[in-house]
């Protein structure tokens, strides 16, 4: 795994920004606010934190993957 | 828990922070910075998480479920823009030598002192309540921990005297810290390594504290997340927090979006965030890690907010303020030390925020407000002081104290009025007013000073009307009817429903109106404005800065070219007066003798005067003094600050020079050592060459002499002829051997030798070497005893090379033993290998030569004849072969059995054991 060019990395993060900005907003989040649990954790909580962790992981990967 | 231990722990912890900051400052001074690390940078950004996070998130979650999250999702989103937006800001800030966000904005809009002052005042007004919030959080959590005030209203412990309570104590300690580590000296780049190191440590402490509380609550009080959530679901008013309605319902959705936007803007515009993210940044590449590490920090510190909230609500019901669950739950669970750790985590969060914020604000207030005002109203006083640095530092320290006193006063007067989280959002909304001018200024060349001033002013006014004044009303400083009915009963002006805009949460409402006023004024005024050349220049410098250009790695930017505005106006008379004031009239007359006082001074004389003054006052002060003498009003704030910058620049440069000198010295030492080694090698090479040529010439000479005799004298008798030919053959063999050795050595050195490494029987192999040298020993009359036991373990080696080594050692023994002497070759198994020894009764090897004999070209001194007995390569080759095979080689005294009259020498080498399956392997 080698580092991508800085410009490429910036573009990836900008795209991730747009995606995250959409996903972190009420209309999409509300889809998971319907109750139910995932491994005992309310679905909405699991979804928000899982999504957040995924965005962070992608941001870290954006600077590493060729 | 008694207040004594808690206070003791808090003071001990703060003392430790002082120590860490002091240590980091010392390390920085020694050139080994601890803050030059992307991880420390990311941790320092976590000063974002104040007590508002540490205590307030739980309070917000108690009413809104996941509604506390946008405050952290906003910065997560902003960090994703780091390569585009933040990198550009960092580069511009380094190039412009920015000292604060106010300075950054003022620089962008034509170095406008008005804008700088406006931003500084807005930031201060907006952030003081936020500082008050930190003091309140520490005070209240202290009360909870010591049992002073476990009350639902979160109020202060009863009967605390003004100026003798813990809020004041915390404020005083924080002021001390900020002064010691944030305003001790003027730094060229406003870097405070000690402060940043302490902040990074505090960030770790608060994270660990919160995680510890979370783990305790989930697995200690309950049996894991499943049972906890199940227990909470049993309460209908808690189950309400599970679904999206609390945080994402129709009204709440507006808050969600507004909070996301505000917190992203605050991440950029809060004075303390700008300070740690931009001003304190030592390397823009640190952003690369912060992009994910800082959001990860935010995620971790929020991971247990919901479990703690639900557990707290289930445990206490309405008995305790949710803001304090983090301390109250461990207390309730009977784990006092964890409660103390949680308190220290909250103290960390407060301390970090207060220190950085007050340092950032004091820099701003000093540079953007105090200095311009002083220059306007008391220019003489400032210009007359030989070195304005102490004055500026005094202003900054005064500002720090004033800010913290204001915060304390606000805390005392309004502290109990509002939940923690609302105060934080009011501050966020205030500093968010800088965002349009900041971001617009980076990308829109047409944005102008008037636009920026108008935008910030309009936005701030609307903010004050729709958020700040209503908060005063809620604190009973204004009548409650101000909110309900509007001022003087004018319903159109109701601050939470301006112009009748209803149905929005107060925050979203304020954000909408202030953004409209701010951006509207900014764009409209900019479009109808015509900026002057200087302003256009700055705009071009900001907008034109590429985020992709070569990164800076150090803070040393070239100082901006000094403007020559007052210089043209100076006359010789002015110079004489200026110099006379500091050096006396005689020197002044002397320096400018014969010139007409009315004549323009010209650059020559200006430089001369500056040099004269600099000798007494130092460079920057000299220029101030000169400028003030020439024209008092000509020295503006920008120039004065630039002069200060230049002084600090000189200091920074001289530090760098010292560093470079030290580096140079180290390099010189290394070079000298290398040179000595080279000289030594050169000498060895010369020695070797003369040895080899000598060795080559001796056999050549005899070959040539004998062949000439054979050629010239055909009548030689057969016996004689045979004898001569035998000598010629022997000498040719010697030559061949010599040349082979030289070639062998060269091959080994170049790694070009072919190796055939396999499992071999050492006894067999050594027997071959003995057979090859037996004749030699017989010829010399030396007794060779062979001691090679059967059943030696097999070794992993190249048979031919082992023979070569053994033959070399044996022939050396033959060469050096006297006639009638003895030599013994033996082999013994040792741990992990086989050890072969060759002992002779020769003169031995002097102790000092024992290492050297294995070096190339070294010979074991003079033999009896005084002539070297070999090429000096045999042992060097043997050593390299043995080492390549994984063994060792050496020499020691001969054993007593042989050592009788002579010293003797024992050469030995070891060979590693072969693996069990003796597989053949060919390697190079």
Write the layout of secondary structure elements.
The complex is a heterodimer of chains A (66) and B (924).
Chain A: H1 6-23, H2 26-30, E1 37-38, E2 41-42, H3 43-62
Antiparallel strand pairs in A: 1-2
Chain B: H1 3-29, H2 38-45, H3 51-64, H4 70-80, H5 82-96, H6 101-108, H7 113-146, H8 166-182, H9 193-221, H10 225-234, H11 236-239, H12 245-248, H13 250-269, H14 271-279, H15 286-302, H16 305-316, H17 325-332, H18 336-377, H19 379-384, H20 389-414, H21 420-431, H22 435-443, H23 449-474, H24 481-484, H25 506-527, H26 533-544, H27 572-583, H28 585-591, H29 602-617, H30 619-630, H31 637-712, H32 718-750, E1 755-760, H33 762-780, E2 783-787, E3 795-797, H34 799-816, E4 822-830, E5 833-840, H35 874-884, E6 889-893, E7 905-912, E8 921-923
Parallel strand pairs in B: 2-4
Antiparallel strand pairs in B: 1-3, 1-8, 4-5, 5-7, 6-7
Helix pairs in contact in B: 1-9, 1-18, 2-9, 2-15, 3-16, 3-18, 4-13, 4-15, 6-7, 7-8, 7-18, 7-20, 7-21, 7-23, 8-18, 8-20, 9-16, 9-17, 9-18, 10-16, 13-14, 13-21, 13-25, 14-18, 16-17, 17-18, 18-20, 21-23, 23-25, 27-28, 27-29, 27-30, 29-30, 30-31, 31-32, 32-35, 33-34, 34-35
Keywords (chain A): Membrane, Transmembrane, Transmembrane helix
Organism (chain A): Azospirillum picis
Transmembrane segments (chain A): 41-62
How many helices of chain B in DSSP terms? 35
Radius of gyration of chain B: 43 Å
Question: Uncertain segments of chain A of ≥5 residues (pLDDT<50)?
Answer: none
Distance between the termini of chain B: 74 Å
- Describe the biggest sheet of chain B? 5 strands, mixed
Contiguous low-pLDDT stretches of chain B (5 residues minimum) are 149-163, 549-564, 861-868, 917-924
The topology string of helices and strands of chain A comes to: HHEEH
The proportion of residues forming helix of chain B, as a percent range, comes to: 55-70%
What's the count of strands of chain A? 2
Net shape of chain B: elongated
Q: What is the chains' assembly state?
A: heterodimer
Supply the CATH class of the largest domain in chain B: Mainly Alpha
């Amino acid at each position: 795994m080698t580092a991508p060019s800085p410009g490429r990395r910036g573009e990836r993060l900008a795209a991730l920004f747009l995606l995250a900005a959409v996903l972190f907003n009420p209309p999409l989040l509300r889809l998971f606010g319907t109750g139910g649990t995932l491994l005992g954790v309310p679905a909405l909580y699991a979804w928000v934190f899982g999504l957040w962790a995924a965005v962070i992981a992608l941001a870290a990967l954006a600077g590493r993957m060729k | 828990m008694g207040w004594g231990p808690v206070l003791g722990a808090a003071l001990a912890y703060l003392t430790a922070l002082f120590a860490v900051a002091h240590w980091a400052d010392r390390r920085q001074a020694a050139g080994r910075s601890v803050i030059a690390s992307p991880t420390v940078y990311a941790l320092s950004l976590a000063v974002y998480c104040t007590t508002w996070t540490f205590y307030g998130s739980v309070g917000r979650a108690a009413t809104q479920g996941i509604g506390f999250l946008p405050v952290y999702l906003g910065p997560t989103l902003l960090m994703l823009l780091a390569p585009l937006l933040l990198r550009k800001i960092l580069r511009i800030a380094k190039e412009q030598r920015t000292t604060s966000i106010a300075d950054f904005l003022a620089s962008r809009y034509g170095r406008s002192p008005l804008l700088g002052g406006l931003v500084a005042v807005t930031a201060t007004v907006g952030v003081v309540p936020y500082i008050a919030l930190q003091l309140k959080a520490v005070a209240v959590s202290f009360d909870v921990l010591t049992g002073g005030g476990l009350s639902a209203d979160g109020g202060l412990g009863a009967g605390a005297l003004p100026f003798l309570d813990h809020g004041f104590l915390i404020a005083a300690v924080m002021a001390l810290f900020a002064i010691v580590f944030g305003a001790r000296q003027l730094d060229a780049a406003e870097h405070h390594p000690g402060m940043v190191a302490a902040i990074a440590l505090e960030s770790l402490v608060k994270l660990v504290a919160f995680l510890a509380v979370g783990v305790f609550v989930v697995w200690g009080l309950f049996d894991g997340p499943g049972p906890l959530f199940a227990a909470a679901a049993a309460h209908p008013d808690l189950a309400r927090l599970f679904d999206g309605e609390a945080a994402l319902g129709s009204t709440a959705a507006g808050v969600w979006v507004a909070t996301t936007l505000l917190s992203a803007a605050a991440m950029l515009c809060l004075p303390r965030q700008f300070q740690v993210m931009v001003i304190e940044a030592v390397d823009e590449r640190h952003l690369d890690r912060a992009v994910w590490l800082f959001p990860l920090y935010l995620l971790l510190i929020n991971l247990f907010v919901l479990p703690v909230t639900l557990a707290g609500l289930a445990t206490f019901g309405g008995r305790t303020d949710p803001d304090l669950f983090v301390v109250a739950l461990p207390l309730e669970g009977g784990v006092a030390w964890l409660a103390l750790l949680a308190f220290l985590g909250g103290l960390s969060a407060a301390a970090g925020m207060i220190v950085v914020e007050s340092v950032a604000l004091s820099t701003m207030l000093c540079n953007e407000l105090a200095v311009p005002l002083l220059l306007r109203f008391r220019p003489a006083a400032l210009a007359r002081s030989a070195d304005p640095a102490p004055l500026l530092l005094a202003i900054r320290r005064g500002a720090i104290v004033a800010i913290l006193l204001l915060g304390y006063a606000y805390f005392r007067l309004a502290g109990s009025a509002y939940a923690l989280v609302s105060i934080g959002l009011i501050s966020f909304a205030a500093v968010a007013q800088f965002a349009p001018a900041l971001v617009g200024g980076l990308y829109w060349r047409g944005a102008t000073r008037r636009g920026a001033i108008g935008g910030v002013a309009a936005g701030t006014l609307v903010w004050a009307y729709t958020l700040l004044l209503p908060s005063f009303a809620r604190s009973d400083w204004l009548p409650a009817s101000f909110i309900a009915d509007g001022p003087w009963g004018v319903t159109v002006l109701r601050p939470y429903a301006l112009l009748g805009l209803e149905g929005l949460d107060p925050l979203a409402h304020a954000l909408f109106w202030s953004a409209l006023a701010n951006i509207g004024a900014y764009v409209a005024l900019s479009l109808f404005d015509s900026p002057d050349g200087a302003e256009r220049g700055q705009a071009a410098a900001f907008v034109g800065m590429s985020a992709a250009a070569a990164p800076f790695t150090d803070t040393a930017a070239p100082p901006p070219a000094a403007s020559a505005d007052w210089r043209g106006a100076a006359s010789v008379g002015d110079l004489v007066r200026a110099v006379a004031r500091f050096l006396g009239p005689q020197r002044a007359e002397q320096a400018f003798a014969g010139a007409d006082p009315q004549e323009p001074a010209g650059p020559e004389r200006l430089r001369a005067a500056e040099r004269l003054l600099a000798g007494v006052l130092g460079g920057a002060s000299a220029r101030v003094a000169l400028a003030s003498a020439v024209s008092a009003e000509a020295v503006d704030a920008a120039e004065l600050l630039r002069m200060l910058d230049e002084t600090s620049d000189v200091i920074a440069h001289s530090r760098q020079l010292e560093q470079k000198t030290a580096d140079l010295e180290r390099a010189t030492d290394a070079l000298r050592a290398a040179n000595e080694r080279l000289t030594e090698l050169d000498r060895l090479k010369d020695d070797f060459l003369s040895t080899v040529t000598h060795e080559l010439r001796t056999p050549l000479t005899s070959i040539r002499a004998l062949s000439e005799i054979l050629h010239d004298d055909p009548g030689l008798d057969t016996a004689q002829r045979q004898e001569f030919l035998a000598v010629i053959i022997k000498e040719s063999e010697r030559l061949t051997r010599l040349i082979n050795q030289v070639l062998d050595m060269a091959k080994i050195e170049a790694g070009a030798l072919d190796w055939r490494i396999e499992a071999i029987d050492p006894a067999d192999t050594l027997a071959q070497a003995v057979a090859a040298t037996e004749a030699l020993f017989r010829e010399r009359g030396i007794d060779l005893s062979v001691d090679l036991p059967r059943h030696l373990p097999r070794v992993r080696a190249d048979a031919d090379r082992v023979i070569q080594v053994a033959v070399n050692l044996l022939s050396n023994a033959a060469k050096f033993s006297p006639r009638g002497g003895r030599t013994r070759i033996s082999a013994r198994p040792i741990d992990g290998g086989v050890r072969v020894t060759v002992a002779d009764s020769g003169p031995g090897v002097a102790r000092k030569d024992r290492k050297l004999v294995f070096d190339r070209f070294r010979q074991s001194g003079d033999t009896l004849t005084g002539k070297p007995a070999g090429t000096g390569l045999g042992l060097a080759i043997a050593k390299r072969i043995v080492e390549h095979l994984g063994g060792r080689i050496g020499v020691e005294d001969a054993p007593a059995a042989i050592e009788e009259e002579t010293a003797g020498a024992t050469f030995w080498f070891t060979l590693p054991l072969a693996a069990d399956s003796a597989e053949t392997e060919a390697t190079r």
